[in-house]
Amino acid sequence: MKAVVYERPFAVEVKEVEDPQIQHPNDVIVRVTSSAICGSDLHMYEGRTAAQPGIVFGHENLGIIEEIGSGVTSLAPGDRVVMPFNVACGFCKNCLAGYTGFCLTVNPGFAGGAYGYVAMGPYTGGQAEKLRVPYADFNCLKLPPGEEFETDFVLLADIFPTGYHGCELAEVSPGESVAVYGAGPVGLMAAYSALLRGAAKVFCVDRVPERLDKAKEIGAIPIDFTKGDPAEQIKDQTDGEGTDKGVDAVGYQAQAHDASHEEPAVVLNSLVETVRATGKLGVPGLYVPSDPGAPDEAAKHGQLLVSIGRMFEKGQRIGTGQTNVKRYNRQLRDLIIAGRAKPSFVVSHEIPLDQAPAAYEKFDKRIEGYTKVVLHPVLAA
After folding, report:
1. What is the spatial distance between Cα 369 and Cα 1, in angstroms, rounded to a whole number?
2. Is 259 exposed, middle or buried (0-12, 13-18, 19+ CB in 10 A)?
3. What's the half-sphere exposure (Cβ side, CA atoms, 13 Å) at 158?
4. Do 242 and 234 touch, CB atoms closer than 8 A?
């Protein structure tokens, strides 16, 4: 089958790789109809992780089941399904508690597994024509048959739940004010989720005009951090108090306010200043224990200079960690079906699998309006 394969920093190719096979009675094989390129993929693409050449990318996957293992009980060939980017067993201590992003079974020695991602287990990615899904009864979320809502549903694999998770970590409630740092796909989903949860005022901080325009379109207040300290800009619009809650949807490759260089802790420290005393911060943005391309030696080992003293002084609370997608995906699916949510507003390009190398380059450079790319390896029957 064809698949998007990592070659070296800033280079992926579409190559022929082996078809996936049933390896366990609870496996299924999915014919992929949609697989999105994620900002997290860019960390590997840019050589900012320990990813080795040969890894097949793709953790945002949707498709049609073609084959099932002998132990599968709730699924059948022909079912249309979307998979959380988390690979999870469903029966370990963390899965039973709802923390499926930190499964203790699927990636021995590490809490958590994912498709097509470095250090997240032996699970091939879905930017390919087919995908093996382990523990399929647990991991597959059934969708209505057909092709309706295709680009909405594929976002249930990661970014829509991740944006919602940022709001859950920050405990966003109706009537509150929220600052979301980052207006990329996850940041826009966090701002959108805050509005869905009833936030009265949502600020979205970024520097890319197309992204800020998208934020404004959904009812958020765009803040360009190159035009002045974003915390001060937001305080000026909240009577000097700051917001009730804040979400970091950027992570460790954050840009300094003058956009001249990376400053890994700048978003965290800006949020400490932006959010009012006793407010709460949600951090779904990715931080890693090892970053070979970090700007300083401490950051290369995941050690950042965060204003913990100021955070303590303000009595703020913080929640972190990757998304437990299964905690949210059924409800978010039903919001889409009911017409209450349409997350596909972030999708800028839908392209064939063969165009993935050019799409990676353009998405990485934030050019030609590339905000979210969905690859279509094959069309749904």
Report:
1. 30
2. exposed
3. 29
4. yes
- Is pTM beyond 0.70? Reply is yes
**CB of 153 closer than 8 Å to CB of 62:** yes
DSSP 112: -
The DSSP call for residue 255 is B
Mean pLDDT per segment of 10 residues, for the chain of length 381 residues?
97 97 98 96 93 96 98 98 98 98 97 96 97 98 97 98 98 98 97 98 95 96 97 98 98 90 96 98 94 91 95 98 97 98 97 96 90 83 37
Length of the chain (residues): 381
Q: Which residues of 270-297 are buried (b: 16+ CB within 10 A; e: fewer)?
A: bbbbbbbeebbbbbbbbbbeebeebeee
57 contacts 44 by C-beta, under 8 angstroms: yes
Beta-strand pair 243-248/201-206: unpaired
d(CA 235, CA 221): 13
Rg of the chain on CA atoms, in Å: 20
Q: Could you tell me the strand order of the sheet in which 221-224 lies?
A: 221-224, 201-206, 177-181, 243-248, 275-283, 317-320
Q: Which candidate, 78, 108, 79, 104, places its Cα nearest to that of 90? A: 104
Residue type, 101: G
